Structure formats: structure tokens, C-alpha cells
Amino acid sequence: MGTFAFFYFAGIIVATAGMVVAFKNPIYSALALLVMFFHVAGLFVTLHAEFLAIIQILVYAGAILVLYLFVVMLLNLKREEHFHRQLLVGVFLGCVLFAEAVLLVLKGETTLGNSLPAADTSVELTRGNTESIGELLFSTYLFPFELASLILLVAMVGAVILTKKGILEVKN
Amino acid sequence: MDTGIRLALTLGQIGAVMVAVLLTVALLTLLERKVLGWMQDRMGPMEVGPYGILQPVADGLKLFFKEDIIPAGANKFMFSLAPVLSLVPALIGFAVIPFGPDWTVDVGGVNFKPFVITDINIGILYILAFASIGAYGIILGGWSSNSKYSLLGGLRSAAQLISYELNVGLSIVGVLLLSSSLSLVTITNAQGGGFWNWYFFAWGSFPQAIAFVVFIISSVAETNRTPFDLPEAESELVAGFFTEYSGMRFAFFFLAEYGNMILVSCVATVLFFGGWHAPFEFLQGPESLHWLTGMFWFTFKVYGFLFLFFWLRATLPRLRYDQLMRFGWKVLLPIALGNIVVTAIVEYIFP
Known about the structure:
The structure holds two protein chains of two kinds. Chain A is mostly helical. Chain A has helices at about 1-20, 25-45, 50-75, 85-110, 110-115, 130-140, 140-165.
């Protein structure tokens, strides 16, 4: 059952991710991305990470993609005309990346795979994973967490300064 | 065998909840017109049946038999998909709402909770996530109609939903701090024993009354109701994103709006007004009757909030677009953030 679910979600993720770049209509691309977000969330659910699954939908599908659609609709891009310009370069880069991935997977079976610790299944269901994530974020990973929020704050301030022209100029 | 029983029970439960919700929607269409009529010193619909009580049936039949028009130049696939994308998120949220006491019944070796479809430990986040998905139906419906009114309605809706969904999320954080749980069942159970334990009053801790006001205002905005109904704005946008819709597709948008209203009322009841708990212990009746009194109080509170929605519609004029944005970001957001800080401090000092 678990394996079946994984291959279902993984298959749809790969297929829709391909559709995101293959569609010529940006609205269809956005919808394919929406389906992909839902299947990534499904993958999280099979790992008993319900909190991450819902956050995935709430943040990516509920906020970021809506903003993206908003922009696409405002610009009224019906078709991306310059679609096939980089086709050759794209195919070449794709082949290189795919070869790297295959090599890594083949190699991973012998070295990387063994070095990973086996998943500890005894702790996962004793308490909700929201509490576990919260505790980890505010103890072990406190510094990266605060750093990430600082970067987000800088981005926010940057956006305000870029859009509000004249906010830094001294008034004469 | 166990799986079969569980499946049958769950499907039966989903069916029962869906029927209850859709019946409430049918009732609401009549109630809204009646309440608006009374507030404006009119009778409301009176023609179909005694006192117009068969009006929802007539409306339903009319919508069902109306010609389904797809405008020329519309994107047919998106045009058909949008109403579904709007209705499903509105109905799916009811899966985590506890309608009655937190009982567990043993049916043929299967533990079964009769009054909540599923008690997942992230219930409230689940509702928020799917409420935000509802925006897609409106945006895509507006875009695919190939009409400038619809497009404007869809754009307004996108901006409005993103702005106010944030306030909904932040206003409930206070409740989550007090209950230290995201499960709606646990949150309801923590509010038993009398109305002073409801998180609106929160005796012995910081009352969430301010958060409740922010929540209700933001919810009205998220459900596109007056005074925040800019996406439809019949006097300026000719019904906005569903200008071009007719027949059953229009009915889907309509059902979604009313379904969202009921869902928001249920969430407000559960988070701030104790869910199925009676205001006084003696009104709850004996333990064996809790299911009846619980359902009664839950329904009573939900209809109270639904009445509030109608009341707001009858009394308040529509906001202008810039007023809407300023109000959401510069008034509600700071209040919601302040509420989180104060609640956290109070909860830390007096745990």
C-alpha cells in the first residue's frame, strides 16, 4: 500500500512538473503546478508529516500560486511566443542533468544509501508532529530558523524600498 | 471486514453531513431574503407556498432547467472547471467540524466517532488551507469567461482573499495558544463547563473577544459577503466573476458561497463559542442526552452567526477597493498581531 501510494504520488509529481514547463498557456502551467503541490502534500501525508502537508498547500497553493496567477492575468500573457528558442540548449542541459541523476542513484545504492540511518519508527506516532517540528525549530535549529526569518525580513524591506520611490531621498 | 464497516460508516457520515449542509443552504436562500425583507420593512418572497417557504424549491428547479451558456471566446475547459474548484473546497472543510460530543462508539469492532467525520490533529489548518484553494475557482472563473467584468471581479477577489486570509490565520493563533492544539475536537473539549470557559471570554486567561471580531470581519471578507463583496459588486461589475455563468454552473458558485458562510460560522462556533457546549452546565441535560442538546446548541450558535451575516448585509454599504486593502493591512493585521503577543505573554505569566 505504502509503495503503491509513493509511486502514484511520485508519478503524478513528475508528470505534472513536466506539464508545467511543457504547456504554452501560462494558466495551464499554473494549474499543473497546483496539482503537483497537492501530490507533494500527499507524499508528506504518507510519511506521517501532516503538518508539512497542510503547510505545503496553505503556503504554496493557497498564497504563492494565487499571486502568480494574479500576475499572469494582469499581464494577459496568452501564449509564450519564444517557447522553442532554447530548445536545443534545454535538451542538452536536460540530458546532462538526467545522466548525473542516474549516476547518483546508481552510486547511492552502494555508498550513500548505506550511510543513511534507518528511519526511527518508534517515536513518530507517540505525539503530534506539529509539536515535534515546533520544538526542533526552537531548539536544535534555532539559528537557521532565525536566519531564515531575517532574510525574509530583508526581502520585505527591500520590496518596500524598491516600490516606494523616494523613500530614502532627503527632503529639501 | 473492518475496512468495509469503516468505509460504510464514513461514507454514511459524509452523506449525512452533505445533506445537512445542502439543506441548510436551501434554507438560507429563503432566510436571507426573508430577513432582508423584514429589516427593510417588506414581506420577502410570499408567492410560492404558504409564506413563500417553497421558494428554494422553485429556485432550484429554475436553475436546474436553465440553459447552460458558454460564452464565445471563453476557455471551455477552465470555464467548466472553475465552479467545481470553487464548490469542492467549500464542502470539504466540514470533514473536521465536530457537530456534537466527542463520543467513540464501537460498531462491529471499529471505533467510530459519530459526530465528527475525521478528527485529524491539524484540523484548523486543514480548513484554512482549503479555504484558500477556493480562490482558484473565482479567479479562473473570472479569467476564463473572456469578459472584462469577470476578469476584474476575479482580480479583486484574488487580492482580497490573499489579504484577508492572513488575518483569519493570525486571529485564531490566540485560541491555539490557549488550547495548545490544532484539532477542533480538542479545542471544543477544552471549552466545556459553562460560557465563561468559551475562548471568547476565556475566564482566567486573556479573552479572545478582539480576535473574534477580527476573525468575523475577515471571514465576511473571505466569503465575499457585503460589505466586502467587491468581487461580485452587482452595481459596478454586473455580478463580477460569475457574470457569464448560468444554470447549474451558476448554482455551483452560489452553493459555494453559502457553503463557505456555513463553514465559517461553524469554525467561529467551535473556536470562540464552545462548539456544542451549552452556556450553562444544567442546560446540557443528562449525559445520555448530550448528543441532542449538543447538536441543538451547535445549530443554534451557527444560525446565530448566519443571522449576523444577513444583518451585516442589510445594514452596511460596500467598501471601496482602497478602503478594503487599507482596512485589512493597516487596521486588522496589527490588531491580530497584537492579540497574539498579549495572549502569549498572559499565557506565559499565568499558565
